[in-house]
Amino acid sequence: MIRIENISKQFGKLTALHNISTSCDKGECIALIGPNGSGKTTLIKSILGMVIPDSGKILFNGLDISGNWQYREEIGYMPQIGRYPDNMNIGQVLDMMKDIRNNNRALDEDLIRGFSIDKLLNKRMRTLSGGTIQKVSAALAFLFNPKVLILDEPTAGLDPVASELFKEKIVAEKEKGKLILITSHILSDLDDLVSRIIYMQDGKLIFHKSIEQLRKDTGEERLVRSIAQVMAENYE
Ligand code: ADP
Ligand code: MG
């Protein structure tokens, strides 16, 4: 579904992405893991077309994404920090996004109801807590029923109930055959969720393997223990 071929990205002297190649298929929930600054967000933004790689290419359903906008209709993106016009209320933000997307697909309002966002429509964005902004971002990512969901640190600000509901939603969408790409520092959140792991460090892709394989290779059942082992091995 998404194919990444030899992409590199330099910010000045810093190599944020170093010749990354991999592919992500539908029906998978893939965790992008690595220390701070390892290039996870840069990789995500490259897929979204928000960062333009210096070399290499990215294919979405076989088509090169460079100079192409159409494919973004198929992606729901939840940014690490969602920014919205302060003076708009939640209802206006939702309406604005519906206007911009303007597609005829049935809306998926599960999270709007699940998070009770429908009871907060008159609240202005600037008055919302960080957790509520996260909920709005999450609801927007799923609202247009996209085939691919890209979630950058989605559970960071959510309370346990919201976080659990959100994980159930992710699993349900994965089971419908969608592709989910997720980064999180809260590895315990990923345990029952992800089917594959991409591990990055210093802009390099260290491995991309199934969670079963990672468990086998490390002899650890829990993701947090497996990754601790991988990090210790790659630490210099
Ligand atoms: P991660 O998401 O894994 O924490 P990032 O992809 O955000 O890492 O960043 C990778 C590296 O690239 C970091 O060293 C970061 O400071 C740098 N970087 C990211 N975006 C920019 C940018 N727009 N300009 C300059 N440096 C950047
Ligand atoms: Mg990041």
From TrEMBL:
Keywords for this protein: ATP-binding, Nucleotide-binding, Transport
Domain ABC transporter: 2-227
Top-level taxonomic group: Bacteria
Gene Ontology molecular function: ATP binding; ATP hydrolysis activity
Record Pfam families: ABC_tran
InterPro entries attached to this UniProt entry: AAA+_ATPase, ABC_transporter-like_ATP-bd, ABC_Transporter_VariousFunc, P-loop_NTPase
Protein name, UniProt field: Cu-processing system ATP-binding protein
Gene source species: Daejeonella lutea
